[in-house]
Amino acid sequence: xxxxxxxxxxxxxxxxxxxxxVSPELRERIASVVERLGWVPHGAARAxxxxxxxxxxxxxxxxxxxxxxxxxxxxxxxxxxxGYTLLLACSQYDFDLEYKQAKKFVExxxxxxxxxxxLHHHDMKDFLQRNGVPVLNxxxxxxxxxxxxxxxxxxxxxxxxxxxxxxxxxRRFGVVAQDSTTNDRARARTQGIRDxxxxxxxxxxxxxxxxxxxxIREGRELFRRIVSREPMPTAVICxxxxxAVGAMLESQDLGIRVPEDMSIVGYDDIEIMAELPIPITxxxxxxxxxxxxxxxxxxxxxxxxxxxxxxxxxAEIIIRASSGPARAK
Length: 329
Description:
Layout (H helix, E strand, L loop, with lengths): L1 H4 L3 H9 L6 H14 L5 H8 L4 E6 L5 H16 L3 E6 L4 H13 L4 E5 L7 H7 L4 E4 L10 E2 L3 H14 L5 E6 L5 H15 L10 E4 L3 H12 L7 E4 L2 H13 L9 E5 L4 H4 L5 E5 L1 H16 L12 E4 L11
Parallel strand pairs: 1-2, 1-3, 3-4, 4-5, 6-7, 6-8, 8-9, 9-10
Antiparallel strand pairs: 10-11
Helix pairs in contact: 5-13, 8-9, 10-11
């Protein structure tokens, strides 16, 4: 290719790897030859020369969840713009599987790994440190771990949502929580609810606290269990968007007036929440921004550049028709 372009192999290398060091005329000539020959860089050879593959691995608990899907879109867009490739894996909220996937990524020579949350397999941190692989946690932020994670403060988000309901006069609460066994974000959200209630001397009755995963069917079943126990709560907080949609659908089948008899709110803002006959109040996270910030920060870290990353991403309460003042006694 260098011979066809009439330049040295060193010039071709500079044009491909450091184009700013080559004149526009030479760049255009080499690009024309590359296009005509259909040439692509040899990944293995480049990795040997630079000790980097240009690939970043990301492991998400699920690839179908609304917030995660939007974050992946943002992450991939950012990495593509910066000349990196995104490799994806799905751990299904299983720490052992997540650890195996991280090991496979390292075997494939990824330059860095992105994980969700700060809670992982007990060997994960040491393994990545021993292999010199930078890691960044997504969808979680706490002041204590500033600089290692990018996302919302989950506890603060649900603290604010619960305070909003308390200000509307609600005193009896139900919670359809997401299982927190391998999900520190869900654990933090539940803590935010409890902390807000404790500020006013309130608590959730044990038979009004139920735990699921993230399906609409579960939301329906768990909501039905809560409202079967008298006295019914006047507000039900759901741990994610799918559980909230299930709770709303079941409330309508049971003839519960929302929000006159009961307010129903959620976390995440999947599209259907705004399109239901009674749109659902929820906490919205700018998921695509989480992905973009993570990609930008990790590339800057790999390339030894300073960047002005904002590690905490805002979580906004979107007020819709599903929430209102508590009914009169």
